[in-house]
Amino acid sequence: MLTQHIIRTAVEAALAEDAPYGDITCETTIPADETGSAHLTARERGVMSGIAVFTAAFTAQNPGIGVSPLIADGERFQRGQVLATVEGPVRDLLAAERIALNFAQRMSGIATMTASFVDAVNAIYDDGHDGTVTRPHRYERTRIVDTRKTTPGLRPFEKYAVVCGGGHNHRYGLSDAVMMKDNHLAALAARGIDLTGAIRHVREQVGHTTHIEVEVDRLEQIPAVLAGGADTIMLDNFSLDDTRRGVDIINGKAIVEASGNMSIERVPAVAATGVDVISVGALTHSVRSIDLGLDWN
Question: I want to staple 53 with a disulfide (CB 3.0 to 4.6 A). Which of 73, 103, 109, 111 is the partner?
């Protein structure tokens, strides 16, 4: 998903945006032949994501810049830990510094937030957990997944960061899977097509490998969705009791996704109902960037 082409294109666009006519500060204060080095330091704990993008920000500016990562994406780091070193012409290092940090800070923020959600869910499967836990039908543990609520133009970076944090990706975009929500169903109902018929209508038009997900907002819709043959049923803004009932009704006949205002405090209880997937829009739309700094040697 996050290819070198995508990274290079985004980094070059960011560099051009930041210095369309060059860096006048460096050009008037730093000698062209001055070299130096710096290290990327964590100012707080977190989970790394974006090392390749951090590297590309410097090498796109000058292929001769040396970048030495000291951590891999997906690894956790502590406050004060050195995560990478860079060395080369000081003008070029300074010109790329902010772009490199912007990507690494946001991506690591997403990875860190995702990891906190994943940890909260995984805790319910520990031997010392106090409470009833229903295992999901489809997966060993309930999965935390992202949504399409991403920053325009940065979706590959943000969805990659979710994976670095131990989460999983929902559909990448509108072209990847059918996802029928209330407005889609209302439009079909206006043509006299009921819920079961609507799903079958879609199934007849798409290829056999196309996944079909249907959103429901009340328990009474589930039998009709199952009759239509949906692959995933999203329980949108269900109470915990209704979520349990929904899992029981579906009984492994489709993947069960829970969605709607998910917080880190709420996801353990939702996962304990036995849903297969919990989608969390906040992973990308409400994330706080991790504090990383480039300290000069």
Answer: 103
Distance, in Å, from the CA atom of 186 to the CA atom of 182, rounded to the nearest integer, reads 6
Q: Which CATH number fits domain 4-118+287-296: 3.10.620.30, 3.30.450.20, 3.90.1170.20, 2.60.200.30?
A: 3.90.1170.20
pLDDT tens across 147-194, in order?
Answer: 999 999 999 999 999 999 999 999 999 999 999 988 888 888 888 888
State the Cα–Cα distance between residues 29 and 178, nearest whole angstrom: 56
Q: What is the pLDDT of residues 233-253, one digit of tens each?
A: 999 999 999 999 999 999 999
Looking at residue 68, its amino acid is: S
Residues 254, 195: Cα–Cα separation, whole Å = 16
Spatial separation of the C-alpha atoms in residues 246 and 136, rounded to whole Å:
12
Q: Is residue 131 a contact partner of residue 272, using CB atoms and an 8 Å limit?
A: yes
Judged on CB neighbours under 10 Å (0-12, 13-18, 19+), 29 is exposed
CA–CA dist 219, 206 (Å, integer): 27
Per DSSP bridges, beta strands 143-145 and 277-279 are: parallel
Query: Around 129, how many Cα atoms within 13 Å sit in the side-chain half-sphere?
Result: 15
Residues noted as catalytic: 98, 149, 181, 215, 236
- Asked if 65 and 90 count as a contact pair (C-beta separation under 8 A), the reply is no
Q: What is the reported pTM?
A: 0.95
Are 14 and 99 in contact by the 8 Å Cβ rule? The answer is: yes
Hey, which CATH number is domain 127-285, 1.10.1040.50, 3.40.50.1580, 3.90.10.10, 3.20.20.70? 3.20.20.70
